[in-house]
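Hello again, I could really use a second opinion on something today. I've been staring at a protein lately and its backbone has me curious. Can you walk me through what the tokens say about the fold? Take your time with it, there's no hurry, and the full record follows here:
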Amino acid sequence: TPKQAEEKALNEAKKEALRMAGVMENVWSVFGQVTADNGTEFTEAYSSVSMLAISGMVNVTEKKVEDFWDEGLKRNFKVVTIDALVTKDETQEDKSYALEVKGIEPIYRQMEVLECSFKVYGTDSYLKIFWFGDGGADMIYPNDYDPNQLFKVGETYKFPVSGAYDLSMEKSDPKADVERVNIIMVATKKEYLYNGDNDYQSILTWIYNIPADQRA
């Protein structure tokens, strides 16, 4: 859709801003594709999110969006040009520090349960889990049922940690065919409280402000 094309072009512009500022490594994207075939029609839904807070933070100060018609391809393109301030994280990563997550599926049906297992390497750690869907963002761990705790290095844990509740996948808009969801899990060597707003930029800013050698 035009909206998705504009979002993708904006992400590419942000990545280019990072590259121009010398932040070339650790710029990565997650891309997912969902297909459905009911026998009469074939539909595809794409979701893409760029993680731009790993080694640098992009603050867009001005954005211009233009439509460009390619006569040869007979297609319309979205062109996004930005002015941005890029802040670089000069802290070196701890290559021995890692968070391993298993069990998160690429596709869920309505009301399926979200669960996974995780393990930290390098040192005992604290964990934060953030959820981003069409209905907004939220921190889903720690929560009222699962209090904050220190996770021992090398041990395998399940989420939800307490096992006292289930998290079921429910679309924000029941009429929507597909909803894209992004999950960010952040392990830290010491406790970094999150008291910010539940929106994407605030959470990325919080992650970026944690030194690179203190997070995975």
